[in-house]
Amino acid sequence: MFRTRKAVAREVLNSKNFEAELSIVARKAGKTQAEARRKALGDLLAMACIQVPFFGFLLDRGLGSLHTRAWSFDVDWPALTRLQSEHAGKPLVFLPTHRSYADAFILMRVLLSNRMPPTYVLGGDNLRFFPLGTIGRRAGIVFIRRSFKDDEIYKLALRRYMHYLIASGANLEWYMEGGRSRTGKLRPPKYGLLRYLVDAMEGGAVRDILLVPVSITYDQLQEVGMMVAEEAGAAKAKEGVGWLAAYVQAQSRKLGKAYVRFGEAFSLREARPTGDDQLPRWTLDKIAFEVFQRINRVTPVTAPALATLALLSVRDHALTLQEVHDVIEPLLDYAAARNLPTSALGALHSVRGVEEVLDTLVRSGIVGRHDGGLEPVFYIEPGKHPVAAYYRNSAIHWFVNRAIVELGIMVAAREGDGNALTRGLDAAFAWRDLLKFEFFFSEKPVFQEEITAEARLLDPNIRALVSGQTVPLSVLERAPFLIAHRVLPAFLEAYFVVADRLAAHPAELPVEERKFLAQCLAVGRQYVLQKRLRSPECVSRELFTNALALAANRGLLQPGAGDLAERRRQFAAETAAAVAGVAAIGDLDYRLRHGRRHLQ
User: Fold this and answer.
1) Do 274 and 403 reside in the same domain of the chain?
2) Are 247 and 340 in a shared domain?
3) What span, in angstroms and rounded, lies between the C-alpha atoms of 320 and 25?
4) Domain boundary among 481, 501, 531
5) What are the tens digits of pLDDT across the range 506-534?
6) Both 280 and 355 in a single domain?
7) How far apart are CA 145 and CA 129, in angstroms?
8) CB burial class (10 A; 0-12, 13-18, 19+) of residue 469?
9) Is 307 in the same domain as 264?
């Protein structure tokens, strides 16, 4: 039966228990029941949507085609078919990564191509303008406010609307990162909509819900330049008709492939069993953490990610084609040894294949190429380091544990007190704690197993080499590659900026986040210009925000504690030592590479 959006809004408003819940919220908000009801109806009318096949066709084949024409699709169709057959009849909630405005259009095309029903997509109301808003509200897009932290009536309306959608058997889709990633890797998740989903299931809307992690990554994105500029302090462009026209025009240039991978779906009921089931109940953050870990497990290593990884680690000089290939080749062997998900990397085994990938980045203005000398050399174009880092970071999670192993071995080799294995493992856990707001590490027992496995990959005889209190630096010198200086500097340098500014902040004054982040952006830019920091991409609001979250987790933000100033200085010293540790790996790698070249 066809329902209008207004009819849907009124149906939710008149649903069981809504009036009773509204009366409680109204009293807290200082409104009469009638005032609260009018506001709730207005909120529901703003978010309610319907699915009309004609408008779904317009959204997919009209606006969708314009948004997605820049890429060919590389989809794990067997995984989607398994999902469709094994979980038929259960509501599905797709939880994709968010990299581009095109994400939802790409997933829509993929699902429809596999004859799956369209999802209801919960997205920001910043896109509720003509024609996207007009079409979207009739094609299953639920436009919600970007922020409604203190609006209890709006929260109630959204929670009850999600209950309504789930009870109707609809499939849902939203982006847990809360916005497009500005760094190329997963952002910390937002929990609000997940909380409402759990409430709907536990409130009896449905017996069970399947959460489907989805990885959507790209060879290249035309919008990356603007996003990284925003991260460095530029104002965000306001979405509207003019903005949409410019975006669609930019999508006319071919940008390679879009990769869609489906992580293993899991039951929300099993994660949140009832008390009678005698099973542990996962917290919301653990559920979100599990979603993101499953996304990471299927996210492929791409050719642009490896090419930019190679070039970003040499700040002050260009690389020949052979030198780029020499960096990438052992990484391909490593990916094969670990059976990592990859995407058409076979061509990178040849110098010619590496050149083809680099030339696509040259045409995009990210990489420079100089042909006037003895042989071509390649380098990151000035000002494009954050853009190149975005592509590198799409696969960075696969190399973080390896980087931590290298740093642990460096610590164990330099410090002679105690058991070498214990020192190295303690160092690994310290790095894990420092970076826990950046990367989705496994729980500690599993992490220890992963670190042990990484160490064996680095050198199968490592346990025999590490005897008692000593570990030889030759373990690193003989390694087929070193990676810490290629993947971690920007994160650690951003953390150093935050720690440095915290140490300078009066301990008796509160930290005002907006002003503090603005100061970090300004000081970080200064330190990069002075060459005190080597990674221009470290000047990032997103990275500074994560570092501030770590500081809060360590109790370094609230004024008043007598030892606060000293603990802040210790945090600054810790981050400075971390930056120096990674630089030491880089210096070692430079000496080894140049030494090998001179010996050949």
Assistant:
1) no
2) no
3) 65
4) 481
5) 999 999 999 999 999 999 999 999 999 99
6) no
7) 13
8) middle
9) no
What is the model's pLDDT at position 598?
Answer: 41
Q: Which amino acid is at 101?
A: Y
Query: Taking the alpha carbons of 194, 198, 199, 201 in that order, is the dihedral positive or negative?
Result: positive
Structural domain of 323: 303-392
CA distances from 469 to 135, 277, 422 (A): 68, 49, 9
What global pTM score does this model have? Answer: 0.92
Q: Which residues are CB-contacts of 204 (< 8 A; sequence separation ≥ 6)?
A: none
pLDDT digit string, tens, across residues 360-369: 999 999 999 9
Residue 40 belongs to some domain of the structure: no
pLDDT score, position 116: 92
* Cβ-based neighbours of 114, under 8 Å, separated by 6 or more: 77, 80, 81, 84
Of the candidates 481, 506, 538, which is a domain's last residue?
A: 481
Alpha helices (H) in 415-483, listed in sequence order: 420-434, 444-458, 462-465, 474-477
Torsions phi, psi for 210 (to 5 deg): -100, 125
Given this model, what pLDDT does residue 600 score?
A: 37
**Which 8-state DSSP code applies to residue 37?**
H
- CA-CA distance, 415 to 70, in Å (whole number)? 52
pLDDT tens by residue, 120-129? 999 998 888 8
CA separation for the pair 36, 14 (Å, rounded): 13
Tokens read off for 460? 């199968």
3-state secondary structure 472-536: CCHHHHCCCCCCHHHHCHHHHHHHHHHHHHHHHCCCCCCCCHHHHHHHHHHHHHHHHHCCCCCCH
- State the pLDDT at residue 599: 38
Between helices 351-363 and 321-338, what is the axis angle to 10°? 110
Is the pLDDT assigned to residue 561 strictly greater than 80? no
The CATH code of the domain that includes 215 is 3.40.1130.10
Radius of gyration for the alpha carbons in the chain, expressed in angstroms and rounded: 26
Q: In this structure, are 143 and 93 located in the same domain? A: yes
